[in-house]
């Protein structure tokens, strides 16, 4: 696992995507390297079952079939335990893969954990971020501080899928 990244050391297009192996909402381990040869959308979100995170997860679920048709897999990562992710999946009928990163190692490697502003105060936490990893394991697109609402539609435009 890579070391924590500061804001000035965020991932950019062409960087090697940091490897991770995390537990999923179904109890399986998922490694980014297992998906080599496919494009992968990796998104980090603060907490399952909160309004913004639910909206974003539902938007990815609603787009999953067309994303897969365009060659993309989707992985949503939060610090929540797999049991909570399973409840989130069941409650909202999510079809995307949800991964648990309780020690925040993957988040830190991607620069998706650190200082952020929350209601005008600087706090440390998950920075809502999305990455597109190409078939060779390199960053194709890195987006930090994304908005939960409307993000999937914007991402689809950025990837020229709409």
Features:
162 residues, alpha+beta, 27% helix, 4 helices, seven-stranded mixed beta sheet
Characterise this structure.
The chain is of the alpha+beta class and 162 residues long. Helix content is 27%, strand content 29%. It has four helices and nine strands; from the N terminus they run βββαβαβαββββα. The strands form two sheets. A seven-stranded mixed sheet has the order 2-1-5-4-3-8-9, with helices on one face. Strands 6-7 form a two-stranded antiparallel ribbon.
Give the structural class: alpha+beta
**What overall geometry do the principal axes of the alpha carbons give?**
globular
Largest sheet: 7 strands, mixed
Number of helices: 4
- Average of the residue pLDDT scores: 92
The parts where pLDDT drops under 50 for at least 5 residues are 1-6
Over all CA atoms, what is the radius of gyration? 14 Å
Q: What's the count of strands?
A: 9
Largest sheet, order of strands side by side?
A: 2-1-5-4-3-8-9
Helix content: 25-40%
Q: Tell me the span between the first and last alpha carbons.
A: 35 Å
Strand content: 25-35%
SSE order, one letter for each helix or strand? EEEHEHEHEEEEH
């Amino acid at each position: 696992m890579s070391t924590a990244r500061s804001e000035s050391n965020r991932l950019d297009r062409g960087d090697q995507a940091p490897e991770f192996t995390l537990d999923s909402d179904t109890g399986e381990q998922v490694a980014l390297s297992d998906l080599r040869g496919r494009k992968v959308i990796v998104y980090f979100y603060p907490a399952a079952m909160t309004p913004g995170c639910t909206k974003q997860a539902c938007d990815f679920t609603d787009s999953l079939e067309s994303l897969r048709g365009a060659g993309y897999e989707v992985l949503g990562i939060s610090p929540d335990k797999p049991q909570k992710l399973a409840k989130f999946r069941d409650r909202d009928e999510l079809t995307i893969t949800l991964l648990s990163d309780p020690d925040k190692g993957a988040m830190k490697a991607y620069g998706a954990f650190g200082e952020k502003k929350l209601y005008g105060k600087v706090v440390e936490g998950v920075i809502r971020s999305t990455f597109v990893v190409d078939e060779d394991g390199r960053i194709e697109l890195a987006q930090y501080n994304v908005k939960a609402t409307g993000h999937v539609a914007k991402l689809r435009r950025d990837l020229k899928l709409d």
